[in-house]
Write a structure and sequence with these properties.
Length: about 90
């Protein structure tokens, strides 16, 4: 069973790193992690690169037109691998 985790975030680089620290400790790691970032800067991206998680992370910094939880979730769903069986948020 293939699992996709979509994480929508906005200006919270520390919180997303804490979340991914938790994901690393799971017994079942998602097959893909899609980070949809509505931030005004690239601090979240820089934090992910600095931590160098060995996870299947796809990072997307979206512009103003795609900000907001619903829009970011929909964007993330559009990036999910078609072979995915479960989508988690």
């Amino acid at each position: 069973m293939k699992i996709s985790l979509i994480i929508c975030t906005y200006m919270r680089p520390v919180a997303i790193c804490n979340l991914l620290d938790s994901v690393v400790q799971q017994t079942l790691i998602p097959d893909e992690i899609i980070v949809v970032d509505g931030s005004l800067d690239e601090r979240t991206k820089e934090s992910l690169e600095f931590k160098n998680y060995h996870l299947p992370i796809m990072y997307f910094l979206v512009d103003k037109s795609l900000r907001g939880l619903t829009r970011q979730r929909n964007f993330g769903v559009g990036k999910v691998n078609p072979d995915c069986d479960i989508i988690a948020f």
